[in-house]
């Protein structure tokens, strides 16, 4: 029997909708569990990204310094990296702030200009991650092996990708079932 | 009218004289991708997606008329690669966020990305500041979603006949404008006929009140209007 | 107006002339350094010295060595003064009668002048461009007379064809072939259009021709109109050339008054009117279909060809469109014959070409040289080598549409084919010289910035591709680039070259591609850091 695949799922700058869609795989998750060890995930209680990960599904864009650091760690320690969902693939809703300018003017507009009367920009160094000037998709920072668009990617789309990767096939990223953004 | 015989992807095809490669290919069941083309409107050859190889040279299928013995290739590897680059350039240009777009599910740009196999964009997102004009009582314009195909400009000029729309500025700063670049609601020429909405391939022009995935365009109605006018004489 | 009238005007003009003429350059370059003030002071000095009977001060067009301007020449003896200041006027006038004069003298026998072959610039710096009489005295409008009275339109086209003249706007399309195509195209009306929308950074050939000898261009257009059967012409000049526009308008008015433009020219049945159209600052309007759209009052953006303007141009009518310099060659070809013209230059590129020499070169200015001359001769003999002795690294021809040619290829002859072979183009005549202090990646970035700003925005590859290429070059010059960025750069360059709608986008990658080819190490140096 093949050793179990070490699977990580990561939640960066996104809404966790992609993870919800993953959970929408319902009973197939039980089949999946037979083939993978979930070594890191927002739904598992691991704080440190482990080494020797076979497959990392990354949800969300790179929006702050924590994401930036983590994505490099993920890439170093993962054999296959998949951008899961539109935020990871394009920046999507997370990147809607980019036209407002760099981090400082963005925070100024959100918290002061259009914010409540007290108008305080939150700042807790070491606790609240620092925003990057530009939100970028994952592949703008590290090489990505496969892309799974969708906001969120429908559960069958995630399953098709996972099945291919579990069988050691290259996923067939063609057609509206696999590709549609949004 | 004389008929012409030409080769499309190695198959002999007949076409009417004066017909474009695009029309001849469609009759022969060969689908060439387009965005700025719309049946019923004049062609401008702007999006470059319909480029085909004719005797070793690239020509826009929408503005090139057929000729006898023409050897056309519509889906060479080079053409597929160029089309993929072009669609990526379009997605990188403005804020095309399908997830929050009124036209999601009914958008030619979104569909084209699927057709051309775009799973991600290799280019940097330009993230320009684009305004939204909702000064018109019934319609709205979101420049974030505009691809400058000029179909609204041509529908307004050629079908409605008022030329409310045009394009101002140049390069990536170019924007569709109404009248003398005033808010749409203050346009003196706009008849609020909505033909621009019919023609728009994306969510750039929308009915006010439509929310995500609710805006359905009806580009085929432009051709219908033009055709019925022609038949009536 | 008849031939003897022309001769009479010429004779009167020669009789009117003083023995000595002080030629004072009043082209844009010298005007910007007090050229008009110098002319006024010289006139005052002549009056004060009581020499009005034998000396006259004449404002002339561009003398050529713009880098040494303001220029003043004493004719006919040929003394040249450089870097003239208004206060030098008295000394210059005194020197005519043997007085002391410490103003810097130029050597009219240096290769910059002697290696030139003036056809287009034959009158530049010699006649007052604002007086038609001077042009007529220099033999002007004789070719037009000959064409109308002694030749059929077909014979005119035949002479132009046999001369081997090719379009001087850059692409080098055979002029005779173009004329004959328009002549054969059916249309109840035809137009002649002169493209004076010169926009390449560092190029000022057309401006100089229009400022120095506007009648030469008008005569060429008029002959063309006769040959193809047009009765209306337009000169499209960029709005940034106010002096050229002013002189051209003056020339048109004078030519009309003399019966050389308008109805029944030379008392024939041939009518031809010319109007000026002023560009509003868009580089892309130099592209012929965009230029025609602009004349029609529409947004100046290109459309796919075919149909070519020769078949369907202004308002859908057959239209001949040539560049300023092309038209400026016509009168001389009719005057001296096609065989004479064809004897100049090379087998495939006949005649001469005007270049604007700029950049890190000793002699900045305008030159007209026979085709086939090598880049080495231009840079080192006419140009006098690098600026203050620096080592010349490359020349850039054709502006944002052209490429950089490294010094190792300076034995390349200047003709359409050879320049294309080394990855550049003849272009309209901009020639920018770079020395070792020039960073070639920065240079490529400069041209790409120009193209992205000037892209009309109609087609996607040019509109967005130029911006993406520019961003990659910014990243690379900031030391943040990688080999992947260079690969993407090359891929985008291929896209633009092969899929853009018009020449602007198709040629925009040339500065990048040529520097990537010849100066790879400069890119590699930046990505290694």
UniProtKB/TrEMBL annotation, chain B:
Residues 2-78 form the 2Fe-2S ferredoxin-type domain. It is found in: Membrane. CDD domains: fer2. The keyword Metal-binding applies. Residues 78-117 form the 4Fe-4S His(Cys)3-ligated-type domain. Its cofactor is [4Fe-4S] cluster; [2Fe-2S] cluster. GO terms for cellular component: membrane. InterPro entries: 2Fe-2S_ferredoxin-like_sf, 2Fe-2S_ferredoxin-type, 4Fe4S_Fe-S-bd, 4Fe4S_Fe_S_CS, NAD-red_Hydgase_HoxS_gsu, NADH_UbQ_OxRdtase_ferredoxin, NADH_UbQ_OxRdtase_Gsu_4Fe4S-bd, PSI_iron-sulfur_center. Keywords: 2Fe-2S, 4Fe-4S, Iron, Iron-sulfur, Membrane, Metal-binding, NAD, Translocase. Residues 137-167, 181-210 form the 4Fe-4S ferredoxin-type domain. Belongs to the complex I 75 kDa subunit family. NCBIfam families: PRK07569.1. This is Bidirectional hydrogenase complex protein HoxU.
UniProtKB/TrEMBL annotation, chain C:
Belongs to the complex I 51 kDa subunit family. It holds the Pfam family Complex1_51K. GO terms for molecular function: 4 iron, 4 sulfur cluster binding; FMN binding; metal ion binding; NADH dehydrogenase (ubiquinone) activity. CDD domains: TRX_Fd_family. Keywords: 4Fe-4S, Iron, Iron-sulfur, Metal-binding. Residues 441-486 form the NADH-ubiquinone oxidoreductase 51kDa subunit iron-sulphur binding domain. It comes from Oscillochloris trichoides DG-6. InterPro entries: NADH-UbQ_OxRdtase_51kDa_CS (IPR001949), Nuo51_FMN-bd (IPR011538), Nuo51_FMN-bd_sf (IPR037225), Nuop51_4Fe4S-bd (IPR019575), Nuop51_4Fe4S-bd_sf (IPR037207), Thioredoxin-like_sf (IPR036249). This is NADH dehydrogenase (Quinone).
